[in-house]
């Protein structure tokens, strides 16, 4: 079931990594090699589905695109 404003054929998804943009260290190799974690990343994914009717055949087409910051 889709959202009343968006309909059943439009899907939006918002993803975030390290939402509060904190510095963290996921791993280290002793005191001389420290790996810093990823910074804030936000992405929006949008997909649209629509039908094209040609004579008696129906063709379902799905478009998907990703937007990253």
UniProtKB/TrEMBL annotation:
SUPFAM superfamilies according to UniProt: Porins
Keywords: Cell outer membrane, Membrane, Transmembrane, Transmembrane beta strand, Transport
InterPro entries in the record: Beta-barrel_TonB_sf, TonB-dep_rcpt-like
Gene3D superfamilies: TonB-dependent receptor, beta-barrel domain
Compartments, record wording: Cell outer membrane
Membrane topology: Multi-pass membrane protein
Keyword Ribonucleoprotein listed: no
Family membership: Belongs to the TonB-dependent receptor family.
Name of the protein described by the UniProt record: Uncharacterized protein
């Amino acid at each position: 079931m889709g959202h009343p404003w968006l309909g059943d054929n439009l899907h939006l998804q918002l993803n975030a990594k390290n939402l509060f943009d904190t510095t963290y260290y996921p791993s280290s190799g002793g005191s001389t090699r420290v790996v810093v974690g990823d910074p804030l990343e936000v992405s929006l994914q949008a997909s649209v589905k629509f039908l094209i009717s040609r004579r008696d055949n129906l063709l379902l087409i799905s478009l998907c695109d990703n937007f990253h910051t």
